Amino acid sequence: MPIDVKEAICKAKEYAGEIFESKSGVSLEEVWFDERAGEWSVTVGIRHQKIGAPEFALSVFNTEIIRSVPEYKVVRLNGETGEPVAIHNYDRVAAE
User: Fold this and answer.
1) What pLDDT is attached to residue 93?
2) pLDDT score for 70
3) What is the DSSP string of 56-96?
4) Do 64 and 39 meet the contact criterion of CB atoms below 8 Å apart?
5) 15, 30, 58, 96 — which has fewest CB within 10 A?
6) How far apart are CA 22 and CA 92, in angstroms?
7) CA angle, corner 47, sides to 43 and 48, nearest 5?
8) How far apart are CA 30 and CA 33, in angstroms?
9) 6, containing H or E segment
10) Measured between alpha carbons, how far is 52 from 11 in angstroms, rounded to an integer?
11) C-alpha angle with apex 86: 33 to 79, nearest 5 degrees?
């Protein structure tokens, strides 16, 4: 029995979080099923904490801020088993 969209989303988020060791979380951006390939493609936003330049208001205290910057990835899953097939950078031009 094929996996449904909810299961595909859960598996993709879990897999991306493990692979990229995200401590700040993985968010869902978009999901679609490729009938020709029999695969789910789930775009996720992976948050990494980065230390940024001080904001102007904080610069008087010489304080750095921590920001969460998303990196977008597409996780492809086998539509029957839910096993990861591939993971790659999200390319908005290729997706349109």
Assistant:
1) 46
2) 79
3) HHHHTTT--EEEEEEEEEEEEEETTT--EEEEEE--HHHH-
4) no
5) 96
6) 22
7) 140
8) 11
9) helix 5-19
10) 31
11) 35
d(CA 26, CA 92): 18
| Mean pLDDT for back-to-back runs of 10 residues, the chain (96 residues) | 94 93 86 96 83 49 58 95 94 56
Whole-angstrom distance between the N-terminal and C-terminal Cα of the chain? 30
Phi-psi region of 79 (alpha: psi -120 to 50; beta: other; left: phi over 0): alpha
Picking from 70, 24, 80, the residue whose alpha carbon sits closest to that of residue 43 is 70
Q: What are the structure tokens assigned to 9, written together?
A: 């989303």
Q: What is the model's pTM?
A: 0.74
Q: Which of 49, 44, 47 is nearest to 87 (CA)?
A: 44
Distances (CA, A) of 57 to 39, 54, 60, 62: 48, 8, 7, 10
